[in-house]
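Folding Query — how this chain folds
Tokens — whole-number codes for backbone shape
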Amino acid sequence: MRADLERLGRYDEHRVRQRLRDTFSTRHTSIIMTGGELAGCVTVRPSEGRQWLEHFYLAPHRQGRGLGSAVLRAVLERTDAQGMTVALNVLRGSAARRLYARHGFVLESQDASDVFMVRPPGTRADAHA
């Protein structure tokens, strides 16, 4: 995420740490393990009648190998079973946006630095997005 923030001219170490402190919820966060090793984490937090997908981080050496898609599929199966819409925001120009689009997320709004996306329950993933 640092590279995307730097690309947008918005990287500020204090601000990044403060955002994590302000929004991180141990209650709603899952640790991602693979091969007995910590691979990342993901938060799915209820708010405003939706589930917010936040703090979805994978170790750099675990990215691009299908782990993110597998985790996202598991999260979406659970939220679909609950009949919940999932919302998220991603930095403009982030490669992660393609991952979310492939799994049925669509643009809700955007500003100068963030893209807000939503996925209604039961939306089919599009492998061709």
Remarks:
- The chain has a mean pLDDT of 85.
- Residues 55 and 90 are 10 Å apart (CA to CA).
- The beta strands are 29-34, 37-47, 50-58, 86-91, 106-110, 114-119.
- Residues 67-81 form the longest helix (15 residues).
